[in-house]
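Consider the following input, taken from an annotated entry for Phospholipid-transporting ATPase (Ignelater luminosus).
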Amino acid sequence: MVRSSIRSSRTRSIDNQRRIHANDRAFNAQFRYANNYIKTSKYTILTFLPLNLFEQFQRLANFYFLCLLVLQMIPAISSLTPVTTALPLIGVLGLTAIKDAYDDFQRHMSDSHVNNRKSQAVRNGRLVQERWSAVQVGDIIRMDNDQFVAADILLLTSSEPNGLCYIETAELDGETNLKCRQCLPETAEMGQNEALISEFDGEIICEVPNNLLNKFEGQLMWKNKQYPLDNDKILLRGCVIRNTHWCYGVVVFAGKDTKLMQNSGKTKFKRTSIDRLLNFLIIGIVFFLLSVCLFCMVACGIWESLVGQYFQTFLPWDTLVPSEPLGGATITALLVFFSYAIVLNTVVPISLYVSVEVIRFVQSFLINWDEQMYSEKTGTSAKARTTTLNEELGQVEYIFSDKTGTLTQNIMTFNKCSIAGRSYGDVVDKQTGEVIEITDEVDSLDFSFNPNYEPEFKFYDKTLLDAVQKNDPECQNFFRLLALCHTVMSDDRDGNLEYQAQSPDEAALVSAARNFGFVFKERTPNSITIEAIGRREVYELLCILDFNNVRKRMSVILRKDGQLRLYCKGADNVIYERLKPGNEEMKHKTQEHLNKFAGEGLRTLCCAYRDLDEVFFNNWKQRHQEAALSLDGRDELLDAIYEEIERDMILVGVTAIEDKLQDGVPQTIANLMLAGMKIWVLTGDKQETAINVGYSCQLLTDEMVDVFIVDASSYDEVQQQLLKFRDNIKIVNTFQPRTPEGNQLGASNGVVDISDHSIGTSTPPQPSHPPAVSVVTFSTNLMYRGGSLDGGMDETSAEFAIVINGHSLVHCLHPQLERLFLDVVLQCKAVICCRATPLQKALVVELIKKNRHAVTLAIGDGANDVSMIKAAHIGVGISGEEGMQAVLASDYSIAQFRFLERLLLVHGRWSYYRMCNFLRYFFNKNFGFTLCHFWYAFFCGFSAQTVFDPMYISVYNLFYTSLPVLAVGIFDQDVSDKNSILYPQLYKPGHYNLFFNKKEFFRSALQGCYISLVLFFIPFGTYYDALSPDGQVLSDYMLLCSAVAAILVIINTAQIALDTSYWTVFNHITTWGSLAFYFIMDYFYNYVMGGIYVGSLTKAITEATFWFTTVLTVTISVVPVLAWRFYFTDVFPTLSDRVRLKQRMAQMRSRQSQDVLRTPSARRARRSIRSGYAFAHQEGFGRLITSGKIMKKLPNTDFSFQLPGIGKFNINSGTNQVSKNTGSVTPSQESNSSARAPIQDLDTINL
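Applying the prediction step yields:
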């Protein structure tokens, strides 16, 4: 018993860990670890046919036609040849298989490209080239600078001092700032001695494969010693080696076991909501068909037993039928059941699916060929990588977007600044005194006088450069601070000075100082050297007070010429609280500039300094060392010590960095939100950065009542925060006054308080100012026929936003908390999830898919977005700077985020509108065509005799009526592309399936039934006992059938002509050409090929009776439908009707009135007083600098001491929130803020 329990516990421990011997393939092979071969394709040559057919026959229509084909092969019950079903079915299966094979071939090519990348593996003391796919767990491989990491690797040694290695993790978390990894000192001693490395025989015991990007636990057993391993020693697949000449590592996880692939998700078979609806409708139609067949079977049995048995000489029963009357009638009725199942099968013709695939295929080419979605900068056009989801683009309700590389360019530029109360950066027109908008046409300043300038640096305000060149002390002090207060490393490459920055923010600030003449040259653990206006200055570095998420600031303490000075930069509210009293005028002006910069979406930092006394500093230094060496509460003690010295500072100025948005992002987001779409930003970036970009792109606005922040670390705290936010929303919606239209009268400025971290942060609603400018609007009543646009929406009239941190999101996605989480987020207009892992992004998408049953779209540009793209109904990849992984996993690819507006509002809406029009018309014409057989059954003894010629039945959907409806499905448009974007609310019917749903299907079916009644009984009554003027008998079966067939084609042509909103040359050719083709084909078939209906149609059209009957039948069929449409268009016009009428009126007047069709401006200033602080920096680099570990060489210096700043990095500690400035300054409203009217009123028209 004891032995079994020990054995089971040992088994469990083995299951929860993996053991790896370096350079020992034989040992590692016994565990059958995954190799490094990557497979994202679905099929192989052997599995393609069975798997693809299995997938296709999951579509009920394909299975239905397969059963029908089997029935048609039985001669006793079939009156039609099996070819009529076999050829279309084989065509549909073949076309779909070719398309699927092509898509999978592209995936195979992508896999092959990745698997055949070259890597260098250590074999027997030398390097050999290996394909990525050949790398196995336990192998030691070499990676050079700027190379991708092939697998998850334990770092052994590197070219950098102390075993450091710099990596970029953009494809994992979207961040392009460098991260540092460090190997064990014991393994770092091997250097690049391949003989020693090939003899490395360490045993790694670590965790099993998982998807946690920021966690790794394990240990290394080597030379009878045990070394702990953590995430800082691991290089993950998808990372890129930066600023490191070479490094070696042992493969820990390979292929599908790597953390990148664990986060990638599975490729899923995606189908549109219309596909799912068609499957449901086909089941209903089949039951309807069976009911009609059952009725005909019973009626046939009754007729045969009462009447038919007496006419066997004229109509003999089949040889299979017994001669006994009752039994014969029963068997005949059973056979008739199957005969009618075949005759009436055209109610769901196979050509429906052929047409649907053709329409989708051509629509995909229209997307590919759209020149307005072509990026000249990259030479990239939009591409539909799938042909099955086009109409789903017109029904998107939730958009999940990455931030870095998708909304932003991830390029930080020094845009503006404020120094000593004076703002710099705006270019003012000397004649008008107005600020000039900076475009590509505006010339930037010439910095070529500076030998260290960077040609790509651009700044436009000459007053700042003049001030620096005139030795303005305030400006020089400002740039000297930027050149000294940072953790940037310098590197001389081929005579060029290059910077290695941990964050793009710091790189932008140090670069700005460099170009203005204050060049950071080099650093040692205890000195910083700069060149200030050509003069070399060396400062003794005494201490770095490192940045972290709680402090929101960093400081350096320097000594030069016996003078001690502390330089500090950080969030405005943090710095203002620590300023020395006095100089209120400068603080007031700087605060105004801060508000202005934040209002423009710029990322701001405040800069300050303090001169220190030597005695005070020495005393402080002693206490700092004691706190740094403390084992209990070291972080808290250090924060308290930092507080003592970072006070009574003097304000120097403010920096304003622009995190450049992609072109047109604010405009695109504004229009998509007007179209009723909810936009969620899921990013791996930090909270302040995500919030700042949210304001920049107008996802967050100052009109919002509140911006909630969920940042708790435990389940109970997250639950408490969500409950508080839900109660806040209820209070606001219950007590806040509303306008008659339902819009909020009051809205807060969106400021988020940081006073209480434990229970969440929010601000109470505050009254806001009314809009300064009104926009001409025409109507607020936007009701669409078939349902209100407001029905079933969870949106409240008050606008809220919520920001969720990654560690809190773990608890929000817990099954017991997800309902509360949904209750809160679904009432928010904007949702931002920061620090989210790739898997969390996918889980958020799945949560909405599962609970909202709404169409979701995910858009991203990096490998960290692949799982989200695969999880959403529609995946859109941006061919950006982070590789092509997102594009290869996507359904559609575009070059920039702004093209998403046209992809959805134009192509998506048109595709949905066209497909719905096509389906309504198709079911209408086929019910009208098929049910003629049913009405004729009452006059032919329910014998399954057809009304139409078998040839006509075979080609009716293929030739006579397919092309006009295909033209509608491909080219039709109710409004132009320009108006589709000008009036985004035209998109909303797609959210509620208003254009095609069960109700619309029943309307089409009933209209088809009505047309079949009119079509059969009017000609039947006309030709019943009819005579020509010369006495010839016209009551002939074939003549009646030919007349009904011709009138049916004419009715269909009239209907499609009335249903076409946008006529092209193709529409004219297909519509009128199909009508002419029918008469030509009928004559050719009957006269040339010897059809049995020869002469029938010729005889019919020579008589006035036919033309009178045609006019009467067409009129009675079409006029009620026209009257119905005219009534609703006149009394209950939709927005589409109004815009279409406006288009026609504009064409008639031959002039455009676009002055009242304004859309929101792409950029506007905000009135709020909020922080623009966002700094993508992380704690830890200060410790590396002052400890000397990061230095390549330590020069001999005369400095007597150094004081390292010691801090512990914890990503979950503290919170980062946008906050209200709480200084003694009373900020004023900006006078130059460009007010804008509410965008929700822009899209209503009343003519």
